[in-house]
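From the shared-data thread, chain only:
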Amino acid sequence: MAKKSVATLQTGSKRLSKAIKMVKSPKTGAYTFVEAIMDPSKVKDFLAKK
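Structure, as tokens:
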């Protein structure tokens, strides 16, 4: 199971969230971190997809 983290960022009038997801590599089995800054409404979709 992947770990997840979400932080809320505020820049001026826009509200953004930084989502960090830990993903296991199918080739090596090592874990890597995928980070993205997006609208808070899209965070659940980002964390749900592989």
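Helices lie at 43-48.
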